[in-house]
Amino acid sequence: MASSAFCIAVALGLLCHAAVAINAAQSVASSSQDAFVGEKLLHRWREMLSARADKGEPAPSVFEQAFTATFTSKQAGEVERTLEQLSQLMAWVDTTPAPNATQLAFLPELRSDAARELASLALALAKSDGADAKALVASLNAISAKLQSASSWRGYAAGRRMVVGAILKKRMDFGGRFPLEVQAAVDAVMLQLFQLHKLSVANRGAVQFFHVSKSGGTNLCQSAEANGCASQGFDTRTNCLIRDFADQPRWVTYNAHKYVQYRMSSRQALPWFVNFHTYRAELTCDQRRAYLLRNGLTFYANEYTNPPTGIPAGASAEEAEAATSGMCEDFVNLIMFRHPHDRLRSQIGWVQKLYKEFYLDTDTQKAFVNRTTGFWERLMPAGVNNYYIRSLLGQRFFEFPVTQVLPQHVTLAKLAALQHDILLSLDAKPRNELALRVGLGWAQALRDDVIRSSAELGDAVALPIDYSTMLERNAPDVEVYNFAREMQALDTLLWNFVAIADTQLGGGSNLSSDKCGYVSMGSPSAAAELEKRYADVVIPASSLRTGGVGVNGVSGAPPADTADAAAAAVRAAESTTTVEGEQQPAAASEEASTGTGKSVLRGAADSSATKRVISISRRTRSSSHRRMLH
Fold first, then answer.
1. Is the pTM of this model over 0.90?
2. Average pLDDT of the residues in 173-177
3. Compositional bias (Low complexity) spans (predicted)?
């Protein structure tokens, strides 16, 4: 009788095969997990549909309601912008059937046969023309069947967005609400996509927040604390960073700083933020995940570049080259974007504020007024030139000459953005709140009361006199931002779908946790699998910034640095570099050309001694100037 009632409900709003697929996906989950990975939701969904069927009422069109809730802007062409970015993504998938090693480093999802097949099915659905309901149902059934074979350890963020985008395109082809038979298939696939995402978040068990400076990351760190996440520190100095990883932002170059210091007629110690070429140990994704696991941490931030991924055993030369950096699959990846023009202005103002705070008795403004883009590109080569792209593509690319961002680099940065499970945009607060609540299971909203702003400077921010030139040079970053913003729109469509479906059931079906949301809800078997995966991962103490003092799961002896050796190195370096830094106003002048870009970085980067000096002097400077991370 119950089966008959359910099949009546299916005719109105849910496909039978979806129930089979979802039940199969839950076979690896314990009974305690069923409620939050979808079994309880599906059970209540069945009951609701059966009750409607008994009364002769149609099933609710959840997708149509989610569509309306997502695209509510008064701006013309809102859906068209999303579909345009989707079209570019689909074109890349269509013309790149076999991604190379570098592309796979930033979109590792496509190493999986199931993920590639899912992408192909989404592509076929998006390319289909017209409003053929029967063909659409068949395509959605094929996608639903493929989702059954997907790994419960991967959320398939790229494939998820391609499928949701393809469904959105078909909704526009139909010109309105889907027919009942299509609606049933759409609802089934949307449920499966969310359940796969949620289960994978629980299994992976830790969030890696890619914090791009001046994009709202401090607020997000504070929100992680409010939502019960475990990190090494939530104060504004630690800012969710792991000290041993040395992921603090790299901003100002040593040589350009010496020119600024010369202009201010100041001889004070080296500020902490003069650190563009400071060393970071090559801790791989596996070592980072093992570190968090062994120390009971569920959230950390990286404010530098994507970390090295490690070279797989038996890797080809091309694969070894690509392994210099990439996305870490065993973390739940989270990133917040901000329009690059707004981020640029904030970055320039923030550095001026830091200089003012450090040189308390000096008029710092005269060092920044009436300067050109060239001056700023020497001072902060990455910070003012396509910072998103340079950060996403890894440490080596971070230090590229400032004019060498090419179309293929834009594509790689888009792939890296696409691989993030959760995409946020600082200027899209309602969508951000939905993503954190439904996508991560956080109950507390994104905090906005701890913003660290350059408005604290007190003086007007001195922008370059040719600021329009700087904006033009950051066009590649704007392209990546526009792509990420529309991918977030596709996420919002899914999150709205889940929220509305839960409301239809009276609420309370999509369960979460007050300990960092879904990441703390993994089953005992998933926890055991994590322990097994990382049991043999070695984390050498010599690779850690603190030497591994007080840290679990670290092997070997700490580095043998001493304070005396550090001080001696600083004195020696200052005797050979200070005069050079002060006697080069012509070379460091804001009037110098940066046309090639190569000369901008060469003088600041080539000396390994300079790198070491910067790193050492930051450890020996006065504690009163240790800001944020130190």
1. no
2. 91
3. 572-593
